[in-house]
Amino acid sequence: MEHRALDRRNLSMLILAHMLTDLNQGAVPALIPFLVAQQGLNYLGASGITVAGTLISSILQPLVGFLSDRRSLSWLLFLGPGLAGLGLGLSGNLSGYGWVLLAILTSAIGVAVFHPEAYRYANYYSGLQTATGMGIFSVGGTLGYAMGPLLLTFLVVQGGLSATAWMSLPALFVAIYYFFQQERLRSARLQQQQALLQSGQTDWRAMSLLLSVIVLRSMSYYCLATFVPLYLIKARGFSTPLANSALTVMSMGSVAGALLSGPFADRIGRRRILFWMALIISLSVLLFVFSPSLLSFVILGLASAALSASFTISMVLGQSYGRGNLGLASGLTVGLAVGVGGLSTPIFGFLADRIGLSTALSAVAILPLLAAALILALPAESQ
User: Fold this and answer.
1) Which of the listed CATH numbers 1.20.120.640, 3.40.50.720, 1.20.1250.20, 3.40.50.2300 matches domain 204-376?
2) pLDDT tens digits for 272-317?
3) Which region, left, alpha or beta, applies to residue 249 given φ > 0 means left and ψ of -120 to 50 means alpha?
4) In this predicted model, what pLDDT tens digit does every residue of 193-234 receive, in sequence order?
5) By the 8 A CB rule, do 280 and 303 touch?
6) CA distance linking residue 90 with residue 206, whole number of Å
7) I need a labelling partner for 186 at 20 to 30 A (CA). Which of 279, 285, 354, 381 fits?
8) Between the CA of residue 35 and those of 26, 84, 147, what are the distances in Å?
9) pTM attached to this predicted model
């Protein structure tokens, strides 16, 4: 197999594209309160938007990945961001729940179809430093998701709901850029396919184990993101703004985890780092529940960094085990497994109602331990 160096120029542009595309996904939760206040949207309708977007992503990403293994879909690198920006831009300029839902689903479709192809090219541009390159690529999405609510809130406060139209511009910039890069992308795809043919077939047993690990990791993340602010308010007596600042701490931890884990994984071994991250997550959750108030934010940042690191490394392992079906492997690890984990959050909500929030949150620590046991069964990955 050809030994390639990390392609910094093309990877940097792809990271920027990831950030500007996920900007739209991150803006949706911030848009919903404005829709409720200014368009009379009820809470059921608001939650329907969130669930529909998650389902679209979970279904479309594996499907797009499956198709991309059979033919080049490089055009999705301009269609995806284009739809993502257009849909969100229209969402504040339409009246009626059906039209607003259609606009936001259009944006969700754009985000979903962008990712499998983007991860494919990020893998190629990373060369032999796969974990490092993919970690930095993931940071782009994390930053975009974090910036989305801030930018949308500023625009809507200044110009009303119609100002969502300005949100379409960053993603449209990405769409135009990749529209004129199609020939170069097809050439890179051809070189990647030739390299993959020499590197073996998909190990479906390993993929199944890894997807189980990712589901457990996703369950852990969504439970923390959902219940940590509530726990800080109810059990610690924090104000709502202070409790919500825990989500900012989680975002900062995610960026640090994605950046730092890649180089370590490339040097020490991906499975080894993934195993230790699972143990750190489990211990951090327990320490968070029982630690003093100020220290709990530090521990939460550590847990979030480990969760982010495990996501990045799992993505790289998935592409390694799924060499024969790289697009499908990317779609399954990013879309389906993460979506299934996110939809499992109501289970812990049910437990919290029955046994108390502190106990339910402590129970989350079991999930990464189960993941650690599965990680031990994973085979060695190819480079």
Assistant:
1) 1.20.1250.20
2) 999 999 999 999 999 998 887 778 888 989 999 999 888 888 888 8
3) alpha
4) 665 555 567 788 998 999 999 999 988 988 887 788 888 888
5) yes
6) 42
7) 381
8) 16, 18, 19
9) 0.75
